[in-house]
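Here is the promised in-class demo. Please do not try to memorize the tokens; focus on the logic of going from shape to residues.
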């Protein structure tokens, strides 16, 4: 019999459910192993194929990815790092050499929304950023910005959308605007003789929507494309860092190359197949691939039809799966990719497997459960002072006491 003192998650009930689905998990494991074998073989054929084998895909905007010259030159899915260290101190010394005098940056956001249990729909976004010049004569900047979203902003009639979606969209927009500010501040770094700055973006630069898009979603895709184009215009590199990607762009390319245009097998993804195909050592990466994901028309240059962004997979931990780095194509074409990837490696050494600027920006931006309680309390006090009709339902108050 369960009592009020029991935990909300009851271990015995969880075990019963896991036992009941044991056969289902076993079948999935068998299917996954089989599918990994299939795509490992396909990836081997992919890297061994000559450039002319991709001629029919050269103008495709929906083949998932398209190989760069790196793949044809290397004939391998693995570009080895080539450095090794005896201990972490040696690794940190290497990282210090890469980062010395180089400005790195990251911005991240957190959001808060007064749910339907609260009579006044209101939200908030907090954007945190971390900019580190890595110089003894200049201090780093760690700061945040708080933005309150009023009911009139959340209940706009421009397009049907739940208020929380508008909060998410505003957070997304503010993160992009903060990164754009970094681009402008560091425009002209080459002419000033500075080391190449790097902006980290938390997440993919390829935001794809499977279902019919809303205008808000279209705007978000356009903003990401605008971020990539601004990076090229200012010549300040940005890297979209995805710690655990579930993308299937390379699998789509492999399928298209062999003439199968159906959906990629769903039990595995690029990361799993790439790890199986040879990205096994810390610091190793794949060649650069141009992104050719379906539905991202704004990611192609009108004059040339070439993609404005691409990606590599990079192993940043000894035992975890490779991370995905989304990178503007101009960085590769300008010969700056190796330098950028070294910066990512170095920041992952400092951050013990995760880029330190992103970790710090996240800590600066985060809104905790306690922060939410403070927000609601302050909002209720504000409403009372100004005789506004605002109240928190008993259910919301009960949640706050119990969680």
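The designed amino acids, position by position:
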């Amino acid at each position: 019999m369960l009592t009020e003192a029991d935990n909300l998650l009851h271990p015995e009930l969880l075990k019963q459910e896991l036992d009941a689905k044991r056969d289902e998990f076993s079948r999935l494991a068998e299917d996954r192993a089989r599918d990994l074998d299939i795509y490992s073989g396909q990836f081997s054929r992919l890297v061994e194929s000559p450039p002319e084998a991709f001629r029919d895909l050269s103008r495709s905007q929906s083949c998932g990815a398209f190989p760069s010259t790196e793949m044809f030159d290397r004939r391998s899915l693995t570009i080895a790092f080539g450095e090794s260290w005896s201990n972490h101190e040696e690794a940190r010394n290497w990282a210090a050499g890469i980062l010395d005098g180089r400005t790195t940056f990251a911005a991240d956001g957190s959001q808060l929304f007064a749910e339907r249990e609260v009579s006044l729909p209101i939200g908030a976004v907090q954007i945190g950023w971390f900019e580190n010049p890595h110089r003894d004569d200049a201090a780093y900047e760690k700061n945040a910005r708080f933005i309150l979203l009023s009911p009139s902003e959340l209940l706009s009639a421009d397009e049907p959308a739940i208020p929380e979606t508008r909060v998410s969209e505003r957070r997304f927009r503010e993160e992009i605007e903060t990164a754009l500010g970094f681009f402008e501040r560091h425009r002209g770094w080459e002419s000033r003789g500075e080391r190449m700055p790097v902006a980290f973006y938390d997440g993919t630069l390829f935001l794809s929507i499977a279902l019919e898009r809303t205008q808000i979603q279209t705007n978000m895709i356009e903003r990401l494309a605008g971020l990539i184009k601004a990076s090229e215009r200012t010549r300040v590199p940005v890297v979209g860092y995805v710690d655990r990607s579930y993308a299937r762009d390379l699998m789509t390319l492999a399928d298209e190359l062999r003439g199968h245009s159906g959906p990629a097998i769903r039990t595995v993804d690029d990361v799993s197949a790439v790890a199986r195909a040879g990205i096994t050592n810390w610091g190793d990466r794949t060649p650069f691939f141009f992104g050719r994901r379906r539905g991202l028309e704004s990611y192609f240059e009108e004059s040339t039809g070439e993609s404005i962004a691409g990606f590599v997979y990079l192993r940043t931990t000894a035992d975890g799966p490779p991370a995905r780095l989304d990178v503007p194509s101009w960085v590769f074409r300008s010969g700056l990719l190796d330098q950028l990837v070294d910066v990512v490696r170095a920041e992952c050494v400092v951050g013990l497997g995760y880029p330190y600027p992103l970790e710090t920006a996240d800590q600066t931006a985060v809104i905790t459960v306690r922060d939410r309680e403070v927000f609601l309390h302050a909002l209720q006090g504000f409403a009372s002072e100004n005789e506004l009709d605002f109240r928190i339902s008993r259910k919301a108050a009960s949640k706050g006491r119990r969680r």
